Fold this protein.
Amino acid sequence: AVLTDAGTRTTLWARRDELARTITDDHVNPDYLPGIELPEGLSAVSDIDEALDGADLVVCAVPSQSLRDNLSRWNGRIPAGAALLSLAKGIESETLSRMTEVIADVTDRPDDRIAVLSGPNLAREVALRQPAATVVACRDESVARSIQNACTTAYFRPYTNTDVVGCEIGGAVKNVIALACGMASGAGLGENTLASIITRGLAETIRLGEALGARAETFAGLAGVGDLVATCSSPLSRNRSFGARLGEGRSLEEAQQATHGQVAEGVKSCSSVRALAAAHGVDVPLTDAVHRVCHEGLPVRDAIIALLSRSTKPE
Ligand SMILES: NC(=O)C1=CN([C@@H]2O[C@H](COP(=O)(O)OP(=O)(O)OC[C@H]3O[C@@H](n4cnc5c(N)ncnc54)[C@H](OP(=O)(O)O)[C@@H]3O)[C@@H](O)[C@H]2O)C=CC1
Ligand SMILES: O=C(CO)COP(=O)(O)O
């Protein structure tokens, strides 16, 4: 919708034909964006060859853990000169790869044709055309600028950056921190707790990002603190809502059912972020606590006690 509003001819691919038809014919996506009218010029197809035909830019927006599988099926059909842009915010479980690394691995394209878009961009607010800013990062700044041009509208303002690692780590880890905020909120805790989690969550994101080669200043920007604050504060966030259900005492299965099939990336990424941090000797106590609640059955209350009983240290 943003690309179409920006004047970029866009074909959306959906795996379900009936949804593709509804988007093209009725200009709505009733499953995910009920009550919102999509641009008339936006068409959707379920045939991947039709979607990729003549594409200059391929925007990958499937959930992180399914990107490799989808790309592998599309590979060979992606036009030779096309750039690829990732919107997904997660770390692959089996390989601990960032999404641009998965794209490079599967498509064998050079890094300067692969980009990421990340920022405080809750889907419903963007679809309602509420003003928001974001970051398009690519090692080749001219590619970032051409994607920036392709998606700039009166309500959507992308900035460019060359720090791909920082933008991807910011996007993946904030989902984990949003789960932690949801857990605290669901357990009845207030704003001091949430601000403390957000701030210390940012500290561990920066530690991990820097260990992986990111620039610290990226985390002070839209793909860092911007997205972190939006996701940790909004009831529209699936990650925060998921965490809140766990904080209220519901089981992982109950919390999963309540997502109605929508992805809360942090539930899987908490384990891959934790493993990535361990591989680089980085301390990520909040991520570790989220992993233990989600996958080792630790009650939220015990996770809070464990975090607060860590040894004291300088900020
Ligand atoms: N929603 C948001 O506010 C934002 C999301 N993101 C990121 O975008 C990515 C996608 O999120 P989002 O669209 O919101 O997720 P949703 O869970 O809401 O939707 C996922 C979409 O991908 C499709 N899908 C799911 N699994 C597969 C698969 N295995 N193969 C092909 N298609 C699949 C679904 O199709 P079907 O309906 O047929 O199941 C659906 O259209 C995530 O990484 C998320 O973090 C980034 C910024 C904002
Ligand atoms: O990434 C997002 C906003 O920028 C969306 O977050 P959720 O996946 O938690 O809804």
The beta strands are 11-13, 43-45, 57-60, 83-86, 114-118, 132-138, 156-161.
